[in-house]
User: Which sequence fits this backbone?
């Protein structure tokens, strides 16, 4: 008997020592770096239509994390990220050659947007990756970054460096990884196929699932629809003034999803203008997505009808939060 206790003790002790060792290693080594990638020297043609499309995408993606109060993409503090993950700042992505991305090549930008890895092999865990954005759309984003539009004009302003918590660092050694660079063309959806357009707009452009699924970290970025709790919502986020907000259940579950609340027209209004059917305003970080067209958002609604229904009573959780606050 004593012997068994001793053995168990030794095993548990070793596991704890290993874990402690791992945490110390992670705390010291920080975010892992990878081999510097081989990057193609493709060059993006900057055309007026690409700039316009790139700007529409940037307005719902890049601007929300990178734009300062003057609407320039000089980087900022990401207040909506729970403290658990540390104090996170985005970066200056204006055309400045020193503080911004002025001396990145088009190939390096696209490689980074797809994989999360910079030319020197360093990895940016918080910046979303865009594995499913069509080649044409990702080139449009680059065209916008190269354009003479106001937000991207060179600026030397610079945010603080991020301070990742130990939990975030552990995540970058476990769940959060760079994505592989796509080996084939990523095609645009057939715009006559409403469901395909809706899925593409929601998953690849709007990144809606990343907030409206079951977990903020445990997600499949390459195959979003296999993510845990896909569109079932329920993630707690930090809204304006530190207020807690919970992401909505966007599935068509009759009791707890959006089926009851929203007609297609009301859904389009909520997503584009940020207003619910009852006139209440949606809280940050659910920002109005005006740059998506009625057709694109309508297509998201049609697509959500096809997504497996999830029973998740977010309204109930919201009510509990209200009570807890009192
Ligand atoms: C959820 C917030 C978020 C969104 C959305 C976002 N970024 Fe970022 N981005 C970040 C953060 C945070 C960093 C800094 C990462 C780091 O320091 O490791 C970053 C870093 C970058 C960098 C690297 C800059 C450097 O000097 O290393 C580029 C380029 C970039 N983002 C471009 C974009 C573009 C283009 C878009 C839109 C398609 C975009 N980002 C959308 C948060 C975001
Ligand atoms: C950065 C995280 C984030 C992203 C990205 C996001 N949402 Fe949201 N969304 C939220 C949060 C948080 C709420 C809850 C807001 C509240 O309760 O006031 C919300 C609420 C909503 C609602 C309102 C539901 C209700 O309760 O009445 C709809 C509709 C919605 N989102 C659709 C979308 C669509 C479509 C997309 C993609 C185009 C999207 N969201 C992207 C965070 C996000």
Assistant:
């Amino acid at each position: 008997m004593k012997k068994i206790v001793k053995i168990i003790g030794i095993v548990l002790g070793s596991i704890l020592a290993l874990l402690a060792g791992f945490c110390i290693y992670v705390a010291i080594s920080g975010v892992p770096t990878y081999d510097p990638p081989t990057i193609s020297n493709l060059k993006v043609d900057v055309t007026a239509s690409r700039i316009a499309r790139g700007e529409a995408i940037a307005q719902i993606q890049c601007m929300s994390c990178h734009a300062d109060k003057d609407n320039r993409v000089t980087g900022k503090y990401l207040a909506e990220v729970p403290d658990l993950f540390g104090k996170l700042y985005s970066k200056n992505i204006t055309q400045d050659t020193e503080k911004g991305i002025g001396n990145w090549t088009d190939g390096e930008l696209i490689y980074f947007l797809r994989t999360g890895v910079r030319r020197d092999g360093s990895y940016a865990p918080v910046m979303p990756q865009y594995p499913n954005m069509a080649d044409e759309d990702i080139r449009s984003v680059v065209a916008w970054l190269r354009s003479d539009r106001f937000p991207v004009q060179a600026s030397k302003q610079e945010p603080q460096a991020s301070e990742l918590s130990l939990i975030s660092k552990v995540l970058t050694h476990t769940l959060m990884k760079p994505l592989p660079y796509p080996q084939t063309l990523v095609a645009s959806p057939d715009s006559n196929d409403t469901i395909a357009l809706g899925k593409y707009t929601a998953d690849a452009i709007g990144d809606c699932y990343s907030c409206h699924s079951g977990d903020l970290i445990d997600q499949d970025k390459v195959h979003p629809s296999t993510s845990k709790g896909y569109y079932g919502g329920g993630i707690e986020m930090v809204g304006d003034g530190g207020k807690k907000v919970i992401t909505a259940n966007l599935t068509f579950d009759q009791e707890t999803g959006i089926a009851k609340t929203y007609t297609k027209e009301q859904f389009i209004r909520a997503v584009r203008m940020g207003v619910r059917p009852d006139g209440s305003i949606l809280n940050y970080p659910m920002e109005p997505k005006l740059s998506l067209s009625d057709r694109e958002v309508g297509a998201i609604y049609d697509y959500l009808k096809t997504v497996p229904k999830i029973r998740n009573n977010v309204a109930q959780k919201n009510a509990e939060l209200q009570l807890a606050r009192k």
Summary: The CA atoms of residues 12 and 141 lie 51 Å apart. The chain has a mean pLDDT of 93.
